[in-house]
Every structure is written in C-alpha cells, then in structure tokens.
Design brief:
Elements lengths: L10 H53 L2 E2 L7 E2 L3 H7 L2 H34 L4 H8 L6 H11 L6 H8 L14 H26 L3 H9 L4 H29 L3 H6 L11 H11 L3 H26 L8
Antiparallel strand pairs: 1-2
C-alpha cells in the first residue's frame, strides 16, 4: 500500500504568525516615521517656546532673588525684593489701578461683544459686517492709542469739539485723574471688542438651530431663548474668552505708554508700566523681576479660579 506524502501541519500556522509579526513591525515603523514627522513640525514652535517663553520665565524668577542692574553681576539677596514689594505703596497703588482698569475693560468688553455676537447670529451673518467689526483689531495698540489721544485732546480733539458744540464743557479725558483709566479702558474695548465678538460668534455657531426653532414653537421670546439656550450652551466658550481677556487686560502697557505715560499723578500707573519703569528707567531688574513673578502668581490664581467657577472644560451640548 502506498502512503501519500503530506506537508507538515505546522507550516501554515507558522506563516500566519510570521505575517502578523511582519505587520506589527511595519506598523511600528510607520508610527516611528509619523512621530519623527510630527517632531519635525513641532520643533520650530517648541524651540520658540523654550527660547522666548520658558527660559525668560526661569531667568526672571532667578533674577527676582537678586540685585541686578546690567552693569554688575547679579548678587543673590534672597527675599529682599519681595519684602520691599510688600512694603512698597506704589506697587499696591499700581495693582489697584490695574484692577480698576481690568474691571471696566472686561465688564464693558464682554457685554458689548456678547451683544454684537448675538446680533450677528440672529439677524445677519454677513462676512462684510464681520470684517467691519474686526477692523479695529487689525490696528496696533500704539496706533490706536495715538489716534484716540489726538481725537480726545482737550484743546483740538474732535471729541471735545463735538461736546462743546452741544453746549457742554470740554472734558480732559486723558488729563484728569477721574477720567484717565476709564478712557484708556474704553479705547482698548473699542480695539478688542470685535475680536472677542467673533470668538463668541464662533461659539454660537456650534449651537443647533433646532433648539431655537423648538423654543419658538413653544412661544419663547428672544430674551427667554437668550437666557435659557444661548447662555448655558455658550458658557464654555465664554469662560475661555474671559480667561484670555482677563490675562490680556492685566498686561496692559502700550496704550498707557503712548497716551498718559502713567499720569496724571500716577493715576494710570498700571502694574506693567511700573515694572517697565523699574527695569528700564531705574535699572532695578531684580525688583522688576520680583513684581513680574508676583503678577504671574496673581494671573495663575485668577485663571485657576475662573476655570473652576465657570467649568470651562465642560459643555452642556450632548
């Protein structure tokens, strides 16, 4: 009797295992290739972050514990700069002025931007109108400050010419202690409100129109839909916008520098301007660094509190 030869039964499973192994190796090679490509694209931004953000921050924290004036090597003084800062009345006055500016700027800007965003969504979505709203943001803070300085000049400004033509007394908007900070805050509101409105408008675009249509069928008014639908669903975007605008408001400098230079009588001596004067006016880089670190700590605390109170990382959209 002849017995037919047969191939070893283990050959096919072995080939199958080899195929799976080869696929895994190929996948790992692709993943390494994708990782290398991603690292290549991230490298410029990472280099910029290290050179222009992380290193200056660490350097500033170190200098805050030293006495440094550019002409001599930094001398370690420990907490002397922070002790001086705590007992410095000008520092606390500058912080008070900055908080006043932030409250006015954020309050007016947020409400105005929200109104503009809702009107853009509910009435018209014209790209031309959105461009007009964004136009002031395309102007630099320095240029905007100079233009408004001329317009609000107490003698020749068109603003005071209009006020006088109405039979009212001229207003020293940027030369009076009472008017200076509100005026600077409103100048920056004018410049930034369009950008803030477009951010909120983008958030409104994510809200389904079906909700508004269903509310209209139920007889809800525009005001009720705003408070019951728009505000709850816009909360995450609004929270992030508030965090960004608060941080930016605490860093106000250029508008003050070109309009009032901290005056009159230090009425607009915001914290950033005081830090700049300490560093580049009196060459007290150690003390200026200490105030910068204090501002960093304040902004970090405010950001964390805002993030948790507003629940910025959560959304009500299902």
């Amino acid at each position: 009797m002849t017995v037919a030869a047969s191939s070893p039964p283990s050959r096919l499973p072995l080939r199958g295992a080899e195929g799976v192994t080869a696929k895994r190796k190929a996948r790992k090679v692709r993943e390494r290739g994708d990782g290398a490509l991603a690292a290549l694209f991230i490298a410029p931004a990472l280099l910029g972050f290290l050179v222009f953000l992380l290193w200056p921050t660490l350097r500033g924290i170190y200098l805050s514990f030293t006495r440094f004036n550019l002409l001599t090597p930094a001398k370690w003084v420990g907490l002397d700069n922070y002790i001086r800062m705590v007992h410095d009345p000008i520092f606390w006055d500058s912080l008070k002025v900055t908080v006043e500016y932030v409250v006015i700027n954020i309050g007016v800007q947020t409400v105005s931007a929200l109104v503009i965003a809702v009107l853009l969504q509910r009435l018209t979505q014209s790209a031309v109108l959105r461009g007009i709203v964004l136009a002031p943001y395309l102007m630099s803070n320095v240029v905007a400050g100079v233009v408004w300085l001329w317009m609000l000049d107490n003698q020749l400004g068109i603003g005071n010419e209009i006020i006088q033509s109405l039979g009212l007394d001229r207003v020293p908007f940027l030369a009076d202690e009472t008017w200076a900070i509100p005026t600077i805050a409103l100048i920056n509101v004018w410049r930034h409100v369009g950008y803030t409105a477009l951010l909120l408008f983008a958030g409104l675009q994510a809200i389904p129109n079906d909700m508004y249509e269903a509310a209209k069928v139920d007889g809800a008014s525009e005001w009720r839909m705003f408070w019951r639908i728009t505000m709850p669903l816009l909360r995450p975007v609004l929270a992030v916008v508030l965090i960004m605008t608060v941080i930016g408001s605490f860093q106000v400098f250029d508008t003050v520098a070109v309009t009032t230079s901290g005056g009159p009588a230090n009425a607009t001596n915001v914290l950033q301007y005081y830090i700049y004067g300490s560093a580049f006016g009196r060459f007290q880089f150690g003390y200026a660094s200490a105030m910068s670190v204090a501002l960093l700590a304040v902004l970090s605390a405010i950001t964390v509190i805002q993030y948790r109170i507003t629940r910025a990382g959560q959304t009500d959209l299902g």
